[in-house]
Amino acid sequence: MVDGPCGGVRSDGGCETGDRPCAFVGPGAAAPRTRPVGRVPLAAPAAALLGVLDARPLIVAELPSSGPDPDELRRTAGVLAGHVDAALLGDAPWARVQLPPALRATLVAAEGVRPWASLNCRDRNRVALEGELAGLAAAGVAAVHCVTGDHPLTGGRPDALPVFDLDAVALAALAAGSGLAVSVAESPSAPPADERPARAARKAAAGADVVIVNHAGDEDALGAFVVATRALAPALRILVSVPLVCSTAGARRLEAFLPGAVPADVLAALDAPDPTAAAVDRAIAAAGRALAVDGVAGVDLSGVAGPGEEPVVAAALAWVGADLGGGS
C-alpha cells in the first residue's frame, strides 16, 4: 500500500491488525504517490447512474448477505427492488466468501435492482482485478466500488493470505479505464482526520467519480469534511453512509468492524419496544440530516444483519429507501 492511510486506522494510530502502528500516521509517515487518470468515456449504464445522482439525492443500500448463496441473494435483492436506486454489493468481514462480482451483479440485476459492484485488493492481484473489471463491464454493470480491503486477520477468514498487489487509489485508476462509474471510500473519523479530505481528493485525481463516506460522527464533522473535500475535488460526488441496525447481534458486528465509531442513537434504538421500527425511524432521520448538508449528493444505507437476519434487514432497508424517494 503506497497511498495510505486506509480506513482501518484505530484511534491510537495503530493498524487494524493490532500488532503495529500505521505506517502512514505520525512522524516519518510514508508519502502518498499521485497516479494520473486514464479515464475513458463512461458506458451508458454508468452515465445513466451519474445522471440520476446529479439530478436528485441518490439512495443506495448495502445488500445484506451471509455468503455465496444465490437464492438468498435473489431474495434480498427482490425485497429492495423499486425502493432504492442501487444495491452496493459490499465486502462484509463476517462473510468474506461471496460469488464472483459479475455473477453477483447479474443475479441482483435480474431482480430489478441496479447493482453497484465492489472490488477489494485483499483477495486478488492486479491481473485478477483487471479481469473482474472486464467482467463487470461486459455484464452492463454501472458502477464499481474500489477499496483496499480489510486485512484477513480482521474478518472471518484469518486463514487466508492477503494479496494487496494494489491499493484503493491504484484500483480506482485501473477502474477509470473500464467505462464504469468509480466509487471509493473515505473515513473522516479515522486518524489522521485532518488528512482525510486530501486523501479523498487523491482518489478523485486517480479517477473516482463518487466517494462514500464511512460513519463520520455528527453533522458538524461531516459538514467540515464535505467542505474541505469539495474545495480540493469539486467534481467528486459525496454519498454518506447511514447505519441501520435492527438487533444486538447486528450492533456487535458493526462495533467489531468500526470500534468506537457506532453512533449512540443506533444502540439506543435497540431498547425500543420494536427495535426494527425504531432503527428505521432513526435511519430516516439520520439520512435526512445528512442530505441537508450542503454538498452531500446521496446516502448509502448500511444495513448490518446478525446471523439469519438478512430478510429482516433487507425489508428495513427497503422501508427507509422508499421513504427517502429511492427507486423513483
What is the gist of this entry?
By secondary structure, the chain is α/β, with parallel strands linked by helices.
Strand adjacency order, main sheet: 1-2-3-4-5-6-7-8
DSSP summary: helix tally: 11
Task: State the separation between the terminal residues, measured CA to CA.
Answer: 40 Å
**pLDDT < 50 stretches:** none
Helix/sheet category: alpha/beta
Helix content range: 25-40%
Q: Give the tally of β-strands.
A: 8
Question: What's the main sheet like?
Answer: 8 strands, parallel, barrel
Coarse shape:
globular
Please characterize this protein's 3D structure.
Strands 1-2-3-4-5-6-7-8 form an 8-stranded parallel beta barrel, surrounded by 8 helices. Helix content is 38%, strand content 14%. By secondary structure, the chain is α/β, with parallel strands linked by helices. The model has no long low-confidence stretch (mean pLDDT 90). The chain starts with 43 loop residues before the first helix and ends with a helix.
Task: Chart the SSEs and their pairings.
Blueprint: H1 44-55, E1 58-62, H2 70-80, E2 86-88, H3 101-110, E3 115-120, H4 126-138, E4 143-147, H5 168-175, E5 181-186, H6 196-206, E6 210-213, H7 219-232, E7 237-245, H8 248-257, H9 264-268, H10 275-291, E8 296-304, H11 310-324
Parallel strand pairs: 1-2, 1-8, 2-3, 3-4, 4-5, 5-6, 6-7, 7-8
Helix pairs in contact: 2-3, 2-11, 5-6, 6-7, 10-11
What attributes does this structure have?
globular, 38% helix, 11 helices, alpha/beta, 328 residues, eight-stranded parallel beta barrel
